[in-house]
Amino acid sequence: RPRKYPPGPNFLPIVGNYLEYRKLLQTTGYHHLVWTKLSERYGEVVGLKLGRMLTVGVFGAEAIKEVFTREDFDGRPDGFFFRLRTFGKRLGIVFSDGQLWKNQRKFSLQHLRSFGFGRREMEEKIQEETRSLIEIFKGSAGEAIFMHKAFDISVLNALWAMMAGERFDIEDARLKKLLQIIHDAFRLVDISGGLLNQMPFLRHIAPDAIGYTLNKEILERMWAFLAETISEHRKTVTLSQQPRDLIDAFLQKMDIKNDDSFTDDQLMSLCLDLFMAGAETTSNMLGFAILVMVLYPEIQKKVQNELDLEVGRNRWPCLSDRIRLKYTEAVLMELQRRVTVAPLGIAHRAVRDTELYGYNIPRDTIILTNLYSVHMDKHYWKDPMEFRPERFLNEKGDLVVNEKHYVPFGGGKRRCLGETLGKANIFMFFSTVLHNFHVEKADDVELKLEGYDGVTMAPKPFRVRLIARKD
Ligand code: HEM
């Protein structure tokens, strides 16, 4: 153990704490709960060694805020698993760091904005998507339909319009398959990169068992899909025309050659990152949102009453209604708290030898911010397991939130880049579905808010019946 490393169980040779971790995973069922157990024993900062990776878990609002606000922790882990996605190099945006990440984050935000991100155009795109999806739902009204991934393509479309200037048909079989593969990829490992990162040599011995084979297959499919889109752009883009989308803007920047981080491999990696980050989280959250409506019919009724009062029956909800739809907003905030779709956030890395809470953190240690522990803090939330939207409303019915204790999108310089889009999509789809339909349970099985484990939480398959509401 490094000197004054955060407390935790003793390391074994080669495997470190891997075996103990695995045992705890079997009993708790979820990676974030393994860490919760360790935190109960060792405190706010817990130090493990998983295979060859020093990995530190950080718990509670205070300590996590410190990680978010200190530059020492702004890095992302390096290693086999992370490089596998980016041609053996450190590329992309989610798992890159240093100057390349800074340039790419700035570029992405600037250009997503110029193609509508956070603006009226984005809302219009989302509205188009809600209309298409509601049409499809109306076609199957009254039937039992699966909801755990019903929003996959719809939420991706607004992002894809800004990135690639196109939308997908909601029934597009090829894309459905691709998104299924992405869901699978997110279930395959946890955010620390799993065994592929901790003991990469195992891929030579047991490539299937540690997920190497499946991982490669998923990546190859994604690359093939993206290569096609990028090559279409390359054929038609010119330096003299206004860029049509983010891919155009990137290709133009490559031609000017004033920044060597704009390469073919980087374009592919950036698209992969944005596509995956944008596709998985929002869709899962909406799946859970519908699940909550089935689990708590009285909350569903209250949301619908508020929609009828504030929006009326003559038009559909829009983003500017949000400030008046306080209860609906509180339901969505409570949802993000209770589900914490990225329970361990996205792994950070100490970029230099540093300390946290008096413990030494060697350079390159992986830091896992346990966002779940912030949202489940008994002292702060009192009854964290309960689904109670009222905790976000004061006596006057106004929304109240303490940013330190509510971190679904992380914080600091690494905070989620897609927050505005994610929130807009969630609000628009949720409110429009409830404005149009009563949501009823379709099967006689017990439904629970607990989802599949992985990099993100995903709702398990469930079906509902959508019953059209009267105008
Ligand atoms: C409900 C929806 C979403 C949730 C809960 C969510 C949550 C998060 C969290 C917790 C992080 C990690 C913050 C950290 O490192 O400490 C993150 C990062 C990120 N998210 Fe999201 N996200 C959502 C939607 C989106 C969307 C729609 C996009 C699409 C553009 C996106 C793109 C990203 C990117 C690119 C990063 C990495 C940022 C960086 O490393 O600089 N996210 N997100």
TrEMBL record:
An example Gene Ontology biological process: xenobiotic metabolic process
Binding-site residues, heme: 416
A single cellular component GO annotation: cytoplasm
Domain of life: Eukaryota
InterPro entries in UniProt: Cyt_P450 (IPR001128), Cyt_P450_CS (IPR017972), Cyt_P450_E_grp-I (IPR002401), Cyt_P450_sf (IPR036396), Cytochrome_P450_fam2 (IPR050182)
Keyword terms: Heme, Iron, Metal-binding, Monooxygenase, Oxidoreductase, Signal
Keyword Metal-binding: yes
Cofactor(s) needed by this chain: heme
Gene3D superfamilies in the record: Cytochrome P450
Entries under SUPFAM superfamilies matching the protein: Cytochrome P450 (SSF48264)
Similarity remark: Belongs to the cytochrome P450 family.
Protein name in the entry: Cytochrome P450
Organism ancestry: Eukaryota, Metazoa, Ecdysozoa, Arthropoda, Hexapoda
